Structure formats: C-alpha cells, structure tokens
Amino acid sequence: MDVRYIVAFVAVSFLISPVSCTDVYKGIERLKCANREGVNVRPHSEFRHHLRELRTKMRIQASVPGSELDAYIVPTFDEHQSEYVAESDQRRRFLSGFTGSNGDVAVTLNSAALWTDERFLSQADSELDCEWKIFRMNSEPSIGKWLTTQLQPDAKVGADSQIVPHYMWQDLKYELSRKSIRLIDVNRYILDAIWGDQRPQPFNDPIKTHPVVFAGEKWESKIVKLRANLTGVRADAMIITSLTEVAYILNLRGNDIPYIPVFKAYLIVTQKEIFLYTNQSRIDFGVSLHLKSEPCHHENCVQVRDYNAIWSDLRTFAQQWQRVLVPTYCVFDMGASEAIYSALPQKIIVERVSPIIYMRAQKNEVERNGMLNAHIRDAAALCDILSYLEERFGYGDNWTEWQLAREIDRTRRSQKYAHDISFETVVAYGEHAALPYYTPTNTTDTFIYNNSTLLIDSGGQYFDGTTDVARTLHMGVPTAEQRRAYTLVLSAMIRLSTLVFPENLRLSDVDILPRGILWSDFKDYPHGSGHGVGSFSSVHESPITIAHTTKHRYTFKEGYFFSNEPGLYRTFDFGVKLKNVLEVVDTGKVHPTGKRFFAFRDVTLVPFEPKLIDRTMLSSQEKRWLNEYNAQIRNLVGAELKRQTKMQAFYWMMNKTKHIIEYLPEKEYRSAQEANNAISMGKASRILIAFILFVSVRALL
C-alpha cells in the first residue's frame, strides 16, 4: 500500500477520534431543546459568557507552570462538603445556571456536562443551555469515564481539592489514570476570578449557643463519648469537617448555610485538647464562656483559632499523632476533603465513618419531646395557612405558586421557637407537581387553579426540632384518576407507618413496603422512601436512608427520626406526594431471638385531603389507622390552635379529620346507612302514632 495512504489514514483517524469519542455518551434526551418553540425558558447568555470565560482561564491556568487545563471539575460542595452551600460558594450554579441542590459539573474546552440525581433531571433540562449534556448521577458514565472519552492521554484535569471529597477525588484519579490523564489540584478558585465583585459576601453573623434545654445534653458529655469512640479505634485525635457535626458536638448554631443552622468551622478533638477553627470575631463573651475558652488549661475547654490556621496546625500535629481518625463517606455526609487527607501522612490516617453521625442520629429524651412539640406547632402553622388559602380561593382570589410558598414561609416563621425554613418550599401545581422537587421561579411561576393537584413540600427549623412535611391538595373536584393516585400514595405511606419489626432490620429493607403498593399498580417514584431528619440541624441526616438501591447495612435504632415519603408523578399532567416524619419507638415486646421489637410513631400531624381519598380502596386496617391519626391531630394540634386562638384553622382542621366508618366497604356502608335511616323513620312514626292514640284515649276518658 502507498505510504501516503497510510499516513493519510492515520492522520484522519487521529483527527476524528475525539469526535467519535464524544458521541459515546449523549446523556438524557434534552426534551426542552428538542422543542424550544413556545416554551418559557431561562435566558442563557449570562451562563454562556461564564463558560467562555472559564475556558479562557483553563487555557492560561498555571497551577502547574507552563501547563493549561484540558478540563475542569466543579462539584456542588464547599470546603466542608455540605449538602447545601452558601450563596458565595454556589460555583456550579454560577457557571451553569442549574439551581438544583445536587449536581457536579465537568467542562472541557469543547464540551460541558452536568451529573445530577433523578430528582432534578427535568429541572436541569429546563434550566441548562442546550450545549450541556445531562447525566444521571451514580450511573454510566461517571465523570471520570466521560472525561476519558473527551480527552487524549497526558491531558490535565483540574479541580480544587478543598471542595472535592476524598472518596470522589480518588475515584476520579483512578478512572483518569487508566488513560494516562492527570488530575491536578488547582490551588485557587479560577471561577472566583470570573465571578469577581458580583460574588456574594459570606455570612459573618455571631455564633449562638444551643441551650441544654433544647439539646438535652451538655457538649462536655458529648466530647467524653467521642473520646471513648476514638479510644476504641486507637486514635489519638479526630478531624471534624462536617458543619452539622461541629454544631452538634459543641451545642452551637449559626446562619452561614441556607436552611441549616450551622457556621463555617473545623474542629480537632484529641484525648487532651479541643481546637475550633473559625472566624474569631464571631465568638462573643457568651460563646467563649460556653466553650470555657478563656482561659483554657484543661481537657474540657475549647481553644479557638483562626479558620485557615488548621492547615499549618495539621502539619504540626501530624508529627505528634500516631493515628488520626479522618471521616469518610456516609449517606448524606461526604467525609473530609482531599485537601484534608493530603495534609496528613497516609500511614497515620484511620478512615472511618464519623462516630458523631451515630451519636447525633439517636435522639435523647429531650430532643424526642422537642421534635414532637415542634411538629405540633408546625402543623398548626400549616392548618392556619391552608385554611386561609381555601377561604380566599372560595372568594375568587388568584394565588400563584410563588405567592403561596412565601405565605407558607411567613406563617411558619411566626411560630414559637421558629428559626427558619428547613429547605426551599415546594409549591407545585398541575404539571409542575409531576416534578418531585420543583420550586417556582420568576419564569416558571403559575397561577393555582381548581382542576389539578397542588403539591406542597416544606419544613421548618425550630430550636427544639426540624420538620419536613408534604401534602397534596385539590382546590376543586378531583378526577377519579387523581383520587386513585392519591389513595395509592396514602396506602403506601400507611404501609410503612404501621410496620412492627425486630431491631436488627436494615433500613433499606423497608423500602419495599411503600414502594410495593405502587409496584403492584406498575408505578414507581424516582426518589427514596425516606431519609433521616435532624433536630435543629439538617433535614437530611445520616445514616438513615430508606432506599432499596443502597448498599448500606445500617439498622434502625430507638430515637431515630426519618421521613416517610412515597409519591406518584404523571409527567406533564399532575403529581401526588405525601410525607410524614416517623420516630422509631420501642414496643416493649421481645423477639424470640432476644431482639427488641420496634415500631414507628408519626410525629407529623397535618390533615390529609378527604376529597382526594377513595375510601373504597382502603382496607379496614388502613381506615382505622387514618381515624387514629386524625384523632391525634384533633387532640394535639387542636389544643395548639385553640391556644393560638386560630379558630378558623381549628374548624378547618376538624372538618378535614372527621371519623370514617372502618369495617364496611363504602357501598355497603351507604346502603346500611339508608336502611338504618328508613328503620329509624319507621320506628319514629310508630312511636308518634302510639303517642297520639294514648293522648286521644286519655282525653275521651
């Protein structure tokens, strides 16, 4: 063969190989991009500009002298791998325009892709420019695998090791190395330079103490338990990077992160010392007294140091420690960053799930009572706003999703011990309700009408507890299909709420109970059946997650709180979601193996919508559960509404929680009721005739 043909073939193959590789993974179908005409979409010019600017920075990036970046990874996290991040840390949102709470981005010089979970796929499709590919998180391809199809060997991928979890960094490094692609630490935020003066300032509010009257245990007692755990793994110290763990262990709270009452800080606990790394100007006299910081000369006091001093201290401490516990991934907790791991010699690191996760999840008696009380007040707030909504709707008022969401937030914040909401309030009408985590924006907000379902998913942060509740309403006359969907979801919820089980049952095993109801109707929902709930902490708390797809082997413990949240979503039509928070309680009974029997108690006490319930679909046991649940609402929430003199809400609640017949099917019940009425009328007529005759006879005599 002519050598010119061989050279030409090799050259053409080299030129087209990157193109053919990019077609390997196309991502989900971009429905909004396929049919943009007539669809209200967000303006994308701002985010296109950000993407161009980033690629320019990548070409001149000099983290490694003389090199450029071929790709750049932007995770959703901050330096503490938080689930929610402050406005000043929302780099992924700034770059892409995607506003969902979970998602990672990878950008090459020619392509851009987002990975998010099933909850946010539709939202990502509507928010991202059509240049972006969208992939499902935790499925093929991973970020690393996708980058290997986009880049040539010896390419360089940049990421900031302070905001990338260690486990994620190691996975990326391994996958990229298989194609001789380097993952390098970019030691400054190249996105921040593009953001410039427009980047919001971080919060710097004073840190507050969380009193024992709410926490139920002194922080010194928690430290004793933590040190015992460290002794158990022969560790000299532990580095705590999770903001919720720092707040929990020290009984402190802050306002740095939306929806979660935490503050930016690191904590190091050794067997003899405690070091808190944060902005020292935020520590007032009261907090200093709480931490026994001035002076600090014993093992149960906290030495406060500057936030960035941790990096120099780690280098010093690493020469003293033999073994140090560094947290690893656990459900909603991502573990420590790659930067933390890299700051320590590998030989002294003990990788473990943080013991604080288990301490925090199992609520003490004060926290358990507080959670119930918080849910009672939260239910009163929802009864108040929902009764007002129905009244104004009846008068012909026009409400939008956004207006209702703000009114729910305002009403919730007016309650006793209220701090804030626990996540962005979801108010979704009609086809928006088919998006499980939709939140109204200025471009998607719509009026609420009376011919479809209205889904409200919301929660509150109170000093004595955290709430998370979803209810689906209908402002008109629901269709048979809507009632069937609602009743299926209600039945699924009841199935989990009524479970009694031995204490060694795994969390993931119970997912089949609510989901099985939907499966039997050949339906499903794209999210877990539940998650752990904190106490004046994160609304998503490890280690609890109710999902059969997880591989975790965690079991239920008395004092755990978690959500029970089945749903049913018909794309472009309507959606139904119901959510209660459950408490794990001891039944007092013992399994033949000696294990205790546990059960669940519903602490959410918000009425369901009777007009959406098809009672012919419920068993007598399910009806009994509903009656008992409604009786609890009447008793506990009714008393709270009276105390607050919210009588309109009280009567609305009473109307929604009427007793229903349990043992007869609906048709038989109605027939029996009509027969009883006829019999009663017959008896009354005979008694009346007898009385008239008796009076007449006496008159004649």
From TrEMBL:
Stretch forming the signal peptide: 1-21
GO molecular function, one term: metalloaminopeptidase activity
Domain named Creatinase N-terminal: residues: 84-187
Superkingdom of the source species: Eukaryota
Pfam families: Creatinase_N, Creatinase_N_2, Peptidase_M24, Peptidase_M24_C
Ranges where the Peptidase M24 domain occurs: 370-584
InterPro entries referenced in this protein's UniProt entry, alphabetically: Creatin/AminoP/Spt16_N, Creatinase/aminopeptidase-like, Creatinase_N, Pept_M24, Pept_M24B, Peptidase_M24_C, X-Pro_aminopeptidase_P
Keywords in alphabetical order: Aminopeptidase, Hydrolase, Metal-binding, Protease, Signal
Peptidase M24 C-terminal domain mapped to chain residues: 597-660
Alphabetical list of SUPFAM superfamilies matching this protein: Creatinase/aminopeptidase, Creatinase/prolidase N-terminal domain
GO cellular component, one term: cytoplasm
Family designation: Belongs to the peptidase M24B family.
Full protein name: Putative xaa-pro aminopeptidase
Source species of the chain: Nyssomyia neivai
